[in-house]
Amino acid sequence: MAVLRMTPNARCVASSSTRLAGRLSRINRNQSGHECAPSVRRSPAAPYAFIMQWRYDLRMGDITEDLDRAGHSAAPRYNILAVEKATGLSARTLRSWERRYGVPAPHRDAHGRRLYSDRDIATVRWLMERVSQGVAVSRAAAMLSEPAEKGERPSPPLETLQLRLLQAIDWMDEEEVRRVLAQALQTAPVETVALELLQPVLYRVGDLWEAGRLSVGSEHFGTHLLRTALADFFEREPDPWRSQHIIVGCPPNELHDVGALVFALFLRRAGFRVTYLGANLEAESLMGDLRRIRPTALCMSATTADTAAALGALYGALTGTFPGVLAYGGRAFNAGPDVGATIPGVFLGADLRAAVDTLAAPA
Question: Which residues lie closer than 8 Å to 27 by C-beta, 6 or more apart?
Answer without folding.
Answer: 35, 36, 37, 204, 207, 208, 211
